[in-house]
Write a structure and sequence with these properties.
- The chain has about 90 residues and is of the alpha+beta class.
- The chain has one domain.
- Helix content is about 15%, strand content about 25%.
- It has a four-stranded antiparallel beta sheet with strand order 1-2-3-4, with no helix packed on it.
- Strand 2 (about 30-40) and strand 3 (about 45-50) form a beta hairpin.
- The longest helix has 10 residues, at about 60-70.
- The mean pLDDT is about 95.
- The structure holds zinc ion.
- Zinc ion (ZN) binds near residues 14, 16 and 40.
Length: about 90
C-alpha cells in the first residue's frame, strides 16, 4: 500500500482514524510488509504483499496472524505482541 493511504483508513472495528504504521519492508512507492495498529482498541492489521488486511475479528485467521506476529517480532512493539487484538502471542507462548 502507499503510505498516504493511511490517512484515509480507519479501524474497521472502532472507526478510529488515527492508526499507527510500522513498516517492515518497502520500496520507493509501496509498503510491502508492515503492520497497522489501532491505538484505540489495540487491534493490529497486517500488511502483506502490499495489501493491508483489515478484516473484522470473525473473518481473521488466527494461525496466520500469530505466525505473522512471531515472524516479525523484532519489529513490533512489545505491547502489540503481548496485548494486541484479536490474537496476541502472550496466550500462546509458554
Ligand atoms: Zn480500533
Amino acid at each position: 500500500m502507499k503510505k498516504n493511504l493511511l490517512e484515509i483508513l480507519a479501524c474497521p472495528i472502532c472507526k478510529n482514524p488515527k492508526l499507527e504504521l510500522f513498516i517492515f519492508k518497502e520500496d520507493e512507492t509501496e509498503i510491502e510488509t508492515g503492520l497497522i495498529v489501532c491505538s484505540e482498541c489495540n487491534r493490529y492489521y497486517p500488511i502483506k504483499g502490499t495489501i493491508p488486511v483489515m478484516l473484522p475479528d470473525d473473518l481473521r485467521n488466527k494461525d496466520e496472524d500469530l505466525k505473522f506476529l512471531s515472524s516479525n517480532q523484532d519489529k513490533i512493539p512489545t505491547k502489540v505482541l503481548s496485548e494486541g487484538k484479536p490474537f496476541s502471542l502472550s496466550h500462546t507462548q509458554k
